[in-house]
Design goal:
This protein is mainly α. It is 75% helix and 0% strand. It folds into two domains: 71 residues, RNA polymerase sigma factor, region 2, helix turn helix motif (Rna Polymerase Sigma Factor, Chain: A, Orthogonal Bundle); 83 residues, Orthogonal Bundle (Arc Repressor Mutant, subunit A), CATH 1.10.10. About 7% of the residues have low confidence.
Length: 163
């Protein structure tokens, strides 16, 4: 596939993905443009058996994390090492977004709020812990437990759909 077609097909998806994690349209535009520039330079190394959209999302996420490091907006410990990337990708897919939002909405507190602050608010674990008067470790464990509950609920829903 020609790279121009790839650009036309996926520009909006990459832009929305970065806008979702950065919350800033200017940053999203810059990262999206740079993603496609890097993608163009590395297209020969792309394994065509893989999903090109996921490949572009990976490039975009890495560029965004590099930008955060450069701006020293986060210390190295606060750089989001795990943002629930698979779930963010699913939220970009309209077919599964409703079901995932339904599961998140049904979570009890503090799991729902911690998960939302981390994924949608892009806050560090330290910032989330501070909002609750707790430690970053508490926020990390609470996020992990929320993520596990979402995965379990999703698996249960998928199993029920098959039966």
């Amino acid at each position: 596939m020609e790279f121009e077609k790839i650009y036309e097909m996926y520009f909006r998806d990459v832009y929305r993905y970065i806008l979702g994690i950065s919350g800033d349209s200017h940053t999203a535009e810059e990262i999206t443009e740079e993603t496609f520039w890097k993608g163009l330079k590395a297209i020969d190394s792309f394994d065509e058996k893989k999903d090109i959209r996921a490949w572009l999302f990976t490039i975009a996420k890495n560029l965004y994390l590099n930008l955060l490091r450069e701006k020293s907006h986060f210390s190295d410990e606060e750089i989001p090492e795990e943002t629930g990337g698979d779930m963010v990708t699913e939220l970009e897919n309209k077919e599964s977004a409703y079901e995932l939002h339904r599961i998140i909405h049904a979570l009890e507190e503090p799991y729902k709020e911690v998960f939302s602050l981390r994924i949608f608010g892009e806050l560090s674990f330290g910032q989330i812990g501070g909002l609750f008067g707790k430690s970053a470790g508490w926020a990390r464990v609470t996020f992990y437990r929320a993520k596990q509950r979402i995965i379990e609920d999703r698996e249960r829903a998928e199993k029920n759909e098959r039966t």
